[in-house]
């Protein structure tokens, strides 16, 4: 039984990596000649194989008496007692997220074959989809927070690159950068948490997070940093400003990232770090509070959005807020079920979003009203006088972006520009100012450079 | 296979390549440099691999003038790869005698400092390296470079003077522990100044005052002073300083890293951003190398190697992008992927070798490489030609 389990474990974890290798080799060999159909087939086949292996493994784990399957790729670094193993494990909860990943990524892969037909970025999209699946696998199966961080980064990078998918326009590239900046700022928290755990606790293994011996202040710091790390990916208050901008990417990528998997990596991280968070008294109330605030914020703001993708994005965040609350309250199984159900529903909604107008028209024709949820508006609970004010505030997303700009970005930028000017003054004093500038080279400088060149390399005399 | 002769051979090959490429005919300069740095890379890899996965190497050669350690030998491939990549990738317009020779000469000097067996020899190597770096930089940036490098060298010399003279030529394992706090602190400060940490980053930015150039990239790479810090000053400071002092130095370096990293955010010129990013990495390298414990030291060493290779790669990419798009503005970067597919796809690592192989110039480079190998090595085959 055990060898079968091991083989299945390797297949589950290796399927997307194999697809990546195959796509890369095929692209190197054939270049632009690689047919769209083949790309889609390779991707779909790898996800199908991974899904079958995951389901078989889940069935065998349920039948047998084996709680988990460990897969180790060896040790990356070994130094005086410290050892960093590339080790993963597959459990029932892990397999749930992996199954979800394979199903939804495969679905999105099939959908995208038509959505992105003849698009110049067709291969790029599928490549990033496979890399994203590898990142999600690492997040789900890593045995330590250190290895999870690698998957966390892969997901972040692919997310930013897919937001900037239509890179010829400045909007998507700017918004991709914004999302990436938010990820990086919060990932620093996760990285510092890993560093503190490895330095003071000598381990970041999930199995030992509940037992690791570490001073209370450091433990509190680690819990806070893990929560900060999870806030970025989940677009939790007050870091939700990047989410509407992230909808610039293709609809399939929005579905898989902001409807299905990427946003749910945030509460999943909290679930995995739960033994550590349970040891810090203020961690659970903080998680609950942030989740509640996010749910209220996203619900209200989402109802004022004029476009379907942004509204669905905010609806996702509202659900992520609720899942955070469930994690904070200790309802871990409910949170897992919520993740699976919500991911499936939201992916379906986002994939259907391009045809929302025809669907609404059809509904109006058949039922005689706009939509069933329009009749259940919570706005009616708000007094009429406050309704306009609330609408305005929600339309501006509670002024979070503006507040961030006024209170953090602008003062910081002003300080940095002042430092930069001092630096430029010192360089100017030493004769090394940026005289060339950024625009095209001035005519005077071109003449000067030509004269210098001619004096050094005189033209040969004609014979 | 013994690692010591291979390490020395690597150094000799790089130094010979620098000298020969400086004085060879213009058309052959680059070929000579590519051949020598390629061979140096092979010997450096052989030297590092001959240590084995867990073997420790400590030994002396040439009457103690060369002292090889596993720490130093494992750094040789990074320096040789740096030279090889630079001479292979410089744009045609910027691969003159001087730049090509410096691309081999500066790493060769850093390598000499890594392999030197005496404190005084390491300091001399660093002084020569600083002088050559000032010489290598842009005309307008020389004054700023001279201030930074000169200040650094002065502090290092002050540190050397504070060390008893009988330790100058003593074996390093004896000299390092006996240096004392003052001497090691002065040397650490000197190296920090040379690396452009914190406020001293103006030296690195000055090197990019005319935008991204090959000479600017050469100047900002972390070559000067790091061997001294890694082999002598760092361990000596970590041993002599008490906890709060060491932590204060590390905190200052971290603050410097934070400031330079933040300054990248307000840059519009790609060259300035690269210089400040490298300054950030240098500060983190310093934090690792003055930390106590082999983990911190190993982290600093690995980050140095990574900074060397990644910094050179980023510089070369930016040079190529500048050749296609003119001066690079970081706030108008969208659309590069379409017109510079090969360069942009560096993100996807496996795409890169193919893009390089498909480049039309590779055949010419390969011809140069073969020509140079034939002309510099007296083999029967070259004689027949």
Verbal overview:
The complex is a heterodimer of chains A (463) and B (385). With 463 residues, chain A is mainly α. Chain A has one domain. Chain A is 71% helix and 4% strand. Chain A has helices at 2-30, 36-63, 92-115, 122-141, 145-163, 170-201, 216-234, 242-246, 251-260, 262-272, 274-277, 283-302, 308-328, 332-352, 356-367, 384-395, 400-429, 443-456; strands at residues 69-79, 82-90. In chain A, strands 1-2 form a two-stranded antiparallel ribbon. Chain A is globular, with a radius of gyration of 26 Å. Chain B is mostly helical. Chain B is built from 19 helices and 2 strands. In chain B, helix 1 runs parallel beside helix 3 and helix 8 (181-195) packs antiparallel against helix 11. Classes of the chains: A mainly alpha (463), B mainly alpha (385). The interface between A and B is large, with 34 and 38 residues.
Q: State mean pLDDT of chain A (0 to 100 scale).
A: 85
Low-confidence spans of chain B: 340-385
Q: How many independent structural domains of chain B?
A: 3
Rounded mean pLDDT score of chain B = 78
The assigned structural class of chain A equals mainly alpha
Q: Major sheet of chain B: order of its strands?
A: 1-2
Tags for this model:
heterodimer; A: 463 residues; mainly alpha; two-stranded antiparallel ribbon; 18 helices; globular; B: 385 residues; 3 domains; 2% strand; disordered C terminus
Architecture blueprint of SSEs:
The complex is a heterodimer of chains A (463) and B (385).
Chain A: H1 2-30, H2 36-63, E1 69-79, E2 82-90, H3 92-115, H4 122-141, H5 145-163, H6 170-201, H7 216-234, H8 242-246, H9 251-260, H10 262-272, H11 274-277, H12 283-302, H13 308-328, H14 332-352, H15 356-367, H16 384-395, H17 400-429, H18 443-456
Antiparallel strand pairs in A: 1-2
Helix pairs in contact in A: 1-2, 1-4, 2-3, 2-4, 3-4, 3-9, 3-14, 4-5, 5-6, 6-7, 7-10, 9-13, 9-14, 10-13, 10-14, 12-13, 12-16, 13-14
Chain B: H1 3-23, H2 29-49, E1 58-61, E2 66-69, H3 70-89, H4 97-115, H5 119-136, H6 142-162, H7 172-175, H8 181-195, H9 202-207, H10 214-220, H11 226-240, H12 243-264, H13 270-290, H14 294-325, H15 336-339, H16 341-344, H17 351-358, H18 361-376, H19 380-384
Helix pairs in contact in B: 1-2, 1-3, 1-4, 2-3, 2-4, 2-18, 3-4, 3-14, 4-5, 4-11, 5-6, 6-8, 8-11, 12-13, 13-14
């Amino acid at each position: 039984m055990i060898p079968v389990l091991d083989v299945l474990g390797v297949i589950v974890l290796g399927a997307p990596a194999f697809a990546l290798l195959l796509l890369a080799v095929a692209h190197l060999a054939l270049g632009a000649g690689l047919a769209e159909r083949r790309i889609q087939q390779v991707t779909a086949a790898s996800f199908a194989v991974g899904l079958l292996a995951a389901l078989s493994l889940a069935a065998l784990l349920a039948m047998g008496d084996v709680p988990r399957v460990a897969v180790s790729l060896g040790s990356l670094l070994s130094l005086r007692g410290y050892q960093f193993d590339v080790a993963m494990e597959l459990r029932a909860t892990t397999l749930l997220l992996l199954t979800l990943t394979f199903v939804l990524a495969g679905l999105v892969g099939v959908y995208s074959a038509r959505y992105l037909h003849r698009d110049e970025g067709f291969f790029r999209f599928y490549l990033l989809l496979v890399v994203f699946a590898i990142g999600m696998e690492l997040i789900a199966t890593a045995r330590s927070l250190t290895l999870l961080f690698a998957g966390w980064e892969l997901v972040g990078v692919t997310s930013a690159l897919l937001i900037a998918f239509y890179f010829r326009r400045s909007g998507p590239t700017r918004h991709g950068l914004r999302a990436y900046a938010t990820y990086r700022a919060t990932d620093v928290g996760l990285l510092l948490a890993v560093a503190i755990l490895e330095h003071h606790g000598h381990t970041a293994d999930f199995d030992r997070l509940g037992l690791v011996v570490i001073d209370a202040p450091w433990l509190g710091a680690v819990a806070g940093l893990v929560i900060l790390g999870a806030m970025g990916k989940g677009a939790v208050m007050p870091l939700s400003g990047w989410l509407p901008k992230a909808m610039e990417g293709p609809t399939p990528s929005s579905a898989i990232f902001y409807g299905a998997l990427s946003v749910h990596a945030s509460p999943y991280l909290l679930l995995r770090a739960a033994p550590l968070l349970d040891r810090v008294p203020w961690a659970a109330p903080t998680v609950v509070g942030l989740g509640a605030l996010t749910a209220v914020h996203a619900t209200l703001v989402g109802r004022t959005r004029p476009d379907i993708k942004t509204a669905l994005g905010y609806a996702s965040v509202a659900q992520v807020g609720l899942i955070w609350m469930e994690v904070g309250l200790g309802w871990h199984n409910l949170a897992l079920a919520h993740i699976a159900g919500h991911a499936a529903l939201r992916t379906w909604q986002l994939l259907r979003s391009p045809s929302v107008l025809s669907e609404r028209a059809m509904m109006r024709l058949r039922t005689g009203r706009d939509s069933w949820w329009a009749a259940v508006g919570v706005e009616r609970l708000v007094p009429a006088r406050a309704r306009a004010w609330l609408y305005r505030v929600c339309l501006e997303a509670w002024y979070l972006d503006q507040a961030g700009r006024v209170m953090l970005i602008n003062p910081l930028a002003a300080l940095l520009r002042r430092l930069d000017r001092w630096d430029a003054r010192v360089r100017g004093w030493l004769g090394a100012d940026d005289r060339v500038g950024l625009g095209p080279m001035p005519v005077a400088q071109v003449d000067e450079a030509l004269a210098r060149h001619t004096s050094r390399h005189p033209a040969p005399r004609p014979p | 296979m013994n690692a010591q002769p291979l390490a020395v051979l690597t150094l000799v090959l790089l130094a010979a390549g620098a000298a020969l490429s400086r004085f060879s005919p213009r058309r052959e300069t680059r070929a000579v440099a590519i051949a020598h740095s390629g061979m140096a890379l092979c010997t450096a890899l052989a030297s590092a691999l001959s240590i084995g996965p867990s073997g420790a190497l400590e030994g002396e050669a040439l009457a103690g003038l060369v002292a090889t350690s596993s720490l130093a030998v494992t750094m040789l491939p990074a320096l040789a790869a740096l030279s090889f990549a630079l001479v292979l990738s410089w744009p045609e317009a910027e691969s003159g005698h001087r730049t090509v020779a410096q691309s081999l000469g500066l790493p060769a000097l850093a390598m000499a400092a890594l392999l030197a067996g005496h404190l005084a020899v390491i300091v001399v190597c660093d002084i020569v390296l600083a002088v050559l770096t000032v010489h290598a930089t842009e005309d307008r940036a020389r004054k700023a470079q001279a201030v930074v490098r000169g200040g650094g060298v002065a502090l290092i010399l002050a540190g050397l003077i504070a060390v008893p003279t009988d330790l100058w030529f003593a074996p390093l394992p004896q000299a390092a522990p006996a240096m004392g706090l003052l001497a090691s602190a002065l040397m650490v400060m000197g190296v920090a100044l040379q690396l452009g940490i914190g406020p001293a980053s103006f030296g690195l930015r000055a090197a990019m005052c005319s935008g991204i150039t090959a000479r600017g990239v050469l100047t900002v790479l972390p070559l000067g002073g790091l061997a001294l810090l890694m082999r002598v000053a760092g361990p000596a400071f970590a041993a002599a300083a008490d906890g709060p002092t060491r932590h204060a130095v590390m905190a200052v370096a971290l603050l410097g890293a934070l400031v330079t990293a933040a300054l990248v955010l307000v840059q519009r010129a790609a060259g300035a951003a690269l210089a400040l990013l490298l300054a950030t990495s240098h500060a983190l390298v310093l934090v690792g190398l003055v930390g106590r414990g082999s983990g911190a030291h190993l982290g600093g060493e690995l980050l140095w190697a990574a900074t060397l290779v990644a910094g050179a790669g980023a510089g070369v990419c930016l040079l190529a992008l500048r050749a296609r798009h003119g001066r690079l503005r970081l706030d108008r970067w969208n659309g590069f992927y379409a017109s510079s597919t090969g360069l942009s796809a560096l993100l996807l690592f496996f795409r890169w070798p193919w893009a390089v192989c498909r480049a039309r110039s590779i055949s010419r480079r390969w011809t140069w490489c073969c020509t140079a190998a034939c002309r510099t090595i007296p083999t029967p085959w070259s004689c027949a030609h």
